[in-house]
Amino acid sequence: MTALRLPSTLTNAQATACLQQLQAGLAQLPAGSAAVVDASALAVFDSAALAVLLECRRTALAAGQTFQVAGLPAAVASLARLYGVDGMLQVA
């Protein structure tokens, strides 16, 4: 299991670069492996952080990997519930 990490700030301004970096990490993982994104450092965020996580999930599942988010801050989890996508984020 390899953990990929979110930065401390993930807003619309950082989303594209962050997604590209995470997708490069996901591409390194073999099919059947667990893709885990560590979100514990995330302190400044907007809805783009959810978009990045959901796109990572889509990428991982398409590659035959499982997907989990570790250390999801409560405020991000609350935003995910607000948008109705909390069930899509497997929180470890």
Radius of gyration: 12 Å
| Structural class label | alpha/beta
Q: For this entry, what is the oligomeric state of its chains? A: single chain
- Helix and strand string, N-terminal first? EEHEEHEH
The coarse overall form would be: globular
Please count the helical segments. Answer: 3
Mean pLDDT: 93
Please describe the biggest sheet, giving its number of strands, its sense, and whether it closes into a barrel: 3 strands, parallel
Instruction: Quote the distance from N terminus to C terminus.
Output: 12 Å
| Major β-sheet strand ordering | 1-3-5
Helix content: 40-55%
Share of residues in strands: 15-25%
The poorly predicted ranges are none
The count of strands amounts to 5
